[in-house]
Amino acid sequence: MIIKRIVVGLLETNCYLVADEKTKEAVIIDPGDEAEKILNVIKKENFKPKFILLTHTHPDHIGALEDLKEKLDIEVLKVKDGDKFQIGNLEVRTIGTPGHTSESICFVIDSNIFSGDTLFKNGIGRTDLEGGDFDQIQNSLKLLMEFPNHFKVFPGHGPETTIGEERKNNPFLTATI
Questions:
Q1: Please, what's the b/e burial string for 10-21 (b: 16 or more CB within 10 A of its CB; e: otherwise)?
Q2: Given the DSSP bridges, would you call strands 90-96 and 105-109 parallel, antiparallel or unpaired?
Q3: CB under 8 Å to 111, separation ≥6 — which residues?
Q4: How far is CA 102 from CA 21, 23, 70, in A?
Q5: Cα 158 to Cα 70, 78, 83, distances in angstroms
Q6: Residue 108: partners with Cβ closer than 8 Å, 6 or more residues away
Q7: For the domain 2-174, what is the CATH code?
Q8: Looking at beta carbons, which pairs linking 10-17 to residues 24 or more positions away fall under 8 Å?
Q9: What residues does 116 pair with on adjacent strands?
Q10: Per-residue pLDDT band at 174 (split at 50, 70, 90)
């Protein structure tokens, strides 16, 4: 599996390109802005994007969505909790993680979790925006903490982390989990 992180937009949103190494089939996760920057990486890596996935629909995560849909002739894959699908030889599983927004979702591919704004390195997504709910995000975090320590977490903003690091160091988790 190949994972490329592209930091885009004023809020420095992480857009991820995840591709099967053999087939080069890829998915675009959270195309927040700067469509040309994303397209340049796709071209350079010779990826074949099959669809776009969204962890949630805040503007900083969908800014380049329409441009990419048009230029790549692909659609957003509509998913719900528990869905499974393939990208080349990779299985993608979905986990509903409401709290930052009511529709927040995480994607699990092998031992990697693409957490959007549910879980950050040493933090969590805001719950004071419309659709946010602190109790819900706490329940969602408990779901994520069921994964083994070695699972990598690729958040919507900031650096990657692991479940083990967050279990030990995240102040939003140490008191409740």
A1: eeebbbbbbbbe
A2: antiparallel
A3: 148, 150, 151, 152
A4: 33, 34, 28
A5: 28, 26, 27
A6: 92, 93, 94, 95, 114, 147
A7: 3.60.15.10
A8: 10/60, 11/60, 11/157, 12/157, 12/158, 13/60, 13/61, 13/63, 13/156, 13/157, 14/154, 14/155, 14/156, 14/157, 14/158, 15/64, 16/114, 16/154, 17/41, 17/42, 17/45, 17/47, 17/49
A9: 155
A10: low
- Dist CA 109 CA 153 (whole Å): 11
Alpha-carbon gap, residue 45 to 43, rounded angstroms: 5
Amino acid at 165: E
The torsion of the CA quartet 53, 55, 56, 59, rounded to 10 degrees, works out to -70
With beta carbons less than 8 A apart as the criterion, state whether 124 and 133 touch.
no
C-beta of residue 117 within 8 angstroms of C-beta of residue 99? no
For residue 176, what pLDDT band results from cuts at 50, 70 and 90? low
- Is the whole-model pTM more than 0.70? yes
State whether the Cα torsion 148-21-92-170 is positive or negative. positive
